[in-house]
Amino acid sequence: MKNLLFNITRSYYYRACFFVILTACSTTIDEQIQALDQSMNAELVMSVTKWTSHVELFAEYKPLVVGEITKFAAHFTDLRNYQPISKAKVTVSLLDGSANVHNIIEKPLRPGIFDPAIKPGREGVYSLVFKIEFDGIIDEITIPDIPVFESREEAEANLKESDEGDITYLKEQAWKTNFSIDIVDYQPIEDRIKAAGEVVKSPSQKNTISSVSGGILIYQNDIQLGDQLKAKDWLFTVVGKNIIGGVEAEENLNLEYLRAKTQLVREEANYLRQKELYDTDVIPQSEYEEHELTYKLAKMEYETIATNYVEGGIQLKAPLSGYISEIWAKPGEYVSVGDPIIEVTQYSGVLLKADIPIDYFDKINEIEIIRWMYRGEWYNSPVNQIDHERQLDAGEVFIPVWFKLNNTNMLPGEYLEIEAIIKSEKKALAVPTAALLEDFGVYSVIVQITGESFEIRNLKIGIKNSDYTEVISGLEPGEVIVINGAYQVKMASMAGDAPTHGHPH
Fold first, then answer.
1. What tens digit of pLDDT does each residue of 407-456 get?
2. How many helices (H) and strands (E) would you count in the chain?
3. Cross-strand bridge partners of residue 347
4. Fewest C-beta atoms under 10 Å: which of 30, 278, 452, 488?
5. pLDDT digit string (tens) for 193-208?
6. 402 falls in which pLDDT band (50, 70, 90)?
7. Which residues on adjacent β-strands are paired with residue 417?
8. Per CATH, which fold does 190-233+318-425 belong to?
């Protein structure tokens, strides 16, 4: 049989009881150590690692020899949580189409590790099939081209050791930590603009409160920018004091109110009298309409004063509910008729104001989704509306951009980390950004070579966002990388005396 290259390590072959759990064996610790010392004959141990969408299989076993029972240390990991599978039925089969051998194991030797056995009947090249049934899942893993040798010497002569990763990190270590892996593949990748942002109010209606009389402005209550008002809240009083030709003259608003009221009473009585004369054809229509107009003007003047009138001044109220967005006149200042005092604004939702780097000016209208970090979690929203500054001062490096957001509980004034996602149809070889390790600007990932061997691989990267990072060189599709736990594996490479790869079982 010609030389074959497999994942093979020189190791002390495993036993039915794990060396690491000496107390579970029937012999004493001293006897187990003595037996282990006697077994240190550096036998060849083969290994195979395969992944499905549900499980990872890492199996170690001695080369298959005709007439000899070969036990497997089959490590099964549930990829949903990277924990050992503790309850399962495992079937191992050696198939060549005619002479098929099977063995079924109903429970693990210890959580995650099953020890099925096979006794080949003849030399040849077979398919090795592992079938696992657990938690309603049935997975079947086939390893083709598995040789069965006539003798142990033939196996030694024909099998060659393969290169493995230079970092050893045992399954038992990974199962005890927050560990996860991912298979490298092509992913949709978007360019994302990182920016600092602030939550601001979104105005929907504004109203300016202006003085309707000249005089001194008196605040009813202390008010500040951002204060919330209700419609018809009493805000100010304008006390009648006019400046005419540089001379201060008192204007008695009480007399003005009484004059307007008296004028209305007089004009109303005159109007009613003229209406009776008009109805009996004593006066012409034109004369009647003249008296009617005079009455309406008197009524309008009175209502304007009476609506805001209080003794000693003119009362000004909030025309609508909202927030104070501008203050132009301060308490004690003189205001003339028509002078603006404050602006009241109603808001519908909030806006997200982002300072976008000026390098992305041409990309602003291509922004499709806005993401923000709020109290430790990422949120996203389709972009409903974009507005930005059209003119910038010389030397400006950021463009203020406002995004309209709906259905958010964020409070105005909060500062956020923002990502603006630009429309893209691009697919690229990419890895989860969480898998990246960085050392002085050099990015790398931990690549899983076999079940318990790893290596650090430097990458050249392209587009990088919070979810995925484009890989320009350094990885191939189908390779397996560590996401959670990469730092622990890297530290294992620096620990010095790492455990040997083919650990005893």
1. 566 777 888 888 888 877 788 999 999 999 999 889 999 999 999 999 99
2. 6, 38
3. 203
4. 30
5. 888 888 887 767 788 8
6. confident
7. 196, 373
8. OB fold (Dihydrolipoamide Acetyltransferase, E2P) (2.40.50)
* CATH T-level fold of 182-189+426-493: 2.40.420
DSSP assignments along 209-231, one per residue: EE-SS-EEEEESS---TT-EE-T
8 Å CB contact between 474 and 458: yes
Burial status of residue 393 (CB atoms within 10 A of its CB: 0-12, 13-18, 19 or more): exposed
Contacts of 491 (CB under 8 A, 6+ apart): none
Pinpoint the residues of the chain covered by CATH 2.40.50.100.
190-233+318-425
Say what the pTM is: 0.59
Q: In CATH, what number does 4-162 get?
A: 2.60.40.1930
Q: Which of 423, 419, 422 is nearest to 433 (CA)?
A: 419
Tokens of 441: 């600007």
Q: Residue 367 in contact with residue 354, Cβ under 8 Å?
A: no
Per the DSSP assignment, residues forming a β-bridge with 237 are 218, 315
Q: Which two tokens stand for residue 397?
A: 């490096």
Which residues neighbour 498 within 8 Å (Cβ) at sequence distance 6 or greater? Answer: 167, 168, 492
* Residue 132 and residue 76 in contact, taking contact as beta carbons nearer than 8 Å: yes
Q: 126 with 95: CB under 8 angstroms?
A: yes
C-alpha 492 chain-centroid distance? 30
Residues of the chain with CATH 2.60.40.1930: 4-162
Amino acid in the structure at residue 312: G
Sign (positive/negative) of CA torsion 381, 387, 393, 394?
positive
What gap in Å lies between CA 94 and CA 57, rounded to an integer?
16
* H-assigned helices in 176-329: 253-279, 285-308
In terms of Cβ atoms closer than 10 Å to its own Cβ (0-12, 13-18, 19+), residue 231 is: exposed
Q: Which of 474, 395, 387, 389 is nearest to 437 (CA)?
A: 474
Using alpha carbons, list the distances in angstroms from residue 292 to 192, 269, 275, 288: 70, 11, 8, 6
For 394-460, the three-class secondary structure string (H helix, E strand, C coil) is CCCCEEEEEEEECCCCCCCCCEEEEEEEECCCCEEEEEEHHHCEEECCEEEEEEEEECCEEEEEEEE
CA 464-465-467 angle, 5° bins: 120
CATH no. for 243-314: 1.10.287
Assign residue 496 a region (left: φ > 0; alpha: ψ between -120 and 50; beta: otherwise): left
Per-residue burial over 158-171, b = 16 or more CB atoms within 10 Å of its CB, e = otherwise = ebeeeebbebbbbb
